[in-house]
Design brief:
about 325 residues, alpha/beta, Spo0b-associated Gtp-binding Protein, Chain: A, Rossmann fold, 2 domains, 6-stranded mixed beta sheet, 5 helices, 16 strands, about 15% helix
Length: about 325
């Protein structure tokens, strides 16, 4: 399945039905006269959050969504039928913005949450509405109103409590595959992960916590370099970041600083988000080298840095314990 996290669509609510001019003249109906009915109301367009959807792929092939028009009024003061409402399913975590003004219209984060994005047009009035003492046979009616039409920007931001970040090949995909049932693509070259991966990690309480493996950041990611710019939005909702650093890298402090600078440059408070820093791939180092790099990383961060090996599962218990502590579990 292709991962699409942005889409542009047009929505058009239904037009209201027209009123009509009609007269009732029957032998045994002394109170006859104007009997034109009102037109039906046009259908609304709604967006609804669906937890079974994981991507905005459907909107790649269909861009315009229209609700049904209201029906024309009928004789004998019969109102036209209202148009059916249109409900468009989107993944949980979808932000909806007006493309013209970029104003946030809604944020659909919970199952079944709905957002009205285009209201249907009002039905027109039949001539029965214009009966008065002065005008006993009105021939006036009104047409239905057009429904609202909007151009929307949909943006999916994954709903994960923990985001795993780091430079390419830091071992993020390996870590999430070991901690959860997720099976991302893993290889020994940069940018193996081209889309975010979600995995559910079991808590001590038995509940599940969603972890997200965010594609590797590089210098300049916040300005559009590499893949990180496309996916930095997915860590905006996370409560905690796990920052992985390749322990076998030549300069772990430089690698730490690159990602930290991108978090700061992107904004949205990401640089202030609670963060656990861990050196990964420690199985590739001698004890003396590891101790030195841990000290360098700790001095840079001003906090304790964990040492783990996602490939051998070493230190993962300590990592999870620190995660649950930060989340207050």
């Amino acid at each position: 399945m292709q991962f699409i996290d942005q889409a542009r669509i047009g929505v058009r609510a239904g037009r209201g039905g027209d009123g009509i001019v009609a007269f009732r003249r029957e032998k045994y109906v002394p109170a006859g006269g104007p009997s034109g009915g009102d037109g039906g109301r046009g259908g609304d367009v709604w967006l609804e959050a669906d937890p079974n959807l994981q991507t905005l792929l459907d909107f790649k092939y269909k861009r315009l969504f229209e609700a049904q028009e209201g029906k024309r009024g009928g004789p004998n003061r019969s109102s036209g039928a209202s148009g059916n409402h249109l409900t468009i399913k989107v993944p949980c975590g979808t932000e909806v913005r007006d493309r013209r003004t970029n104003i946030l219209l809604g944020d659909l984060t919970e199952k079944g949450q709905r957002l009205l994005v285009a209201a249907g047009g009002r039905g027109g009035l039949g001539n029965a509405h214009y009966l008065s003492n002065r005008n006993r046979a009105p021939e006036k009616f009104t047409e239905g109103r057009d429904g609202e039409e909007w151009h929307l920007q949909l943006e999916l931001k994954l709903l994960a409590e923990v985001g795993i970040i780091g430079l390419p090949n830091a071992g993020k995909s390996t870590l999430i595959s070991v901690l959860s049932a997720a099976r991302p693509k893993i290889a020994d070259y940069p940018f193996t992960t081209l889309v975010p991966n979600l995995g559910v990690v079991r808590r001590p309480t038995g509940d599940g916590t969603v972890f997200a493996d965010i594609p590797g950041l590089i210098a300049g990611a916040a300005q559009g370099a590499g893949l990180g710019h496309d996916f930095l939005r997915h860590i905006q909702r996370t409560r905690l970041l796990i920052h992985l650093v390749d322990a076998s890298a030549e300069d772990v402090v430089r690698d730490l600083a690159v990602v930290e600078q991108e978090l700061t440059a992107y904004g949205h408070g990401l640089d202030e988000r609670p963060r656990i820093v861990a050196l990964n791939k420690i199985e590739l180092l001698l004890e003396e080298e590891l101790a030195e790099k841990l000290q360098q990383a700790s001095d840079h961060c001003g906090r304790t840095v964990l040492a783990i090996s996602a490939a051998t599962s070493k230190g993962l218990d300590q990592l999870l314990a620190a995660t649950w502590k930060e989340l207050g579990i």
